[in-house]
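Hi everyone, sorry if this is the wrong subforum. Our group has a chain we'd like a structural model of before ordering constructs, and none of us has done structure prediction before. Sequence below.
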Amino acid sequence: MARRPARGRTLRDLRAEVEAVEARDREAAARAPAATPMRPRPEESSRRKPLTQPRMRVVWAVCDIGGRPVATFPYAQKAAAEAHAAQLKAKKKAEFFLRSIKEPIDPTDD
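Answer:
Right subforum, don't worry. Here is the predicted structure as tokens:
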């Protein structure tokens, strides 16, 4: 069997301390005045949250070999963007490629 240490607090002592603290808390709660009931919160309106980011649209970007956009075209005009890339390749003797990118929509554009 396990022997208990010669010195120190026993479980019985610890339990007695816990019960004493609980008894003190119950007495303090009984002496304290009754808590006032909480007021009901005013009902929040169901407003839509404002958009945190602007709306985006996808466009075709003709980019140079460094990845920098040289020209942009609406997404529906992919053929025009490919033609522009081919024209720049022939004219400047450099590589150009297409890539789709997202850009914010300007509210004044229609």
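For your construct planning: The chain has a mean pLDDT of 86. The first strand starts at residue 56 and ends at 64.
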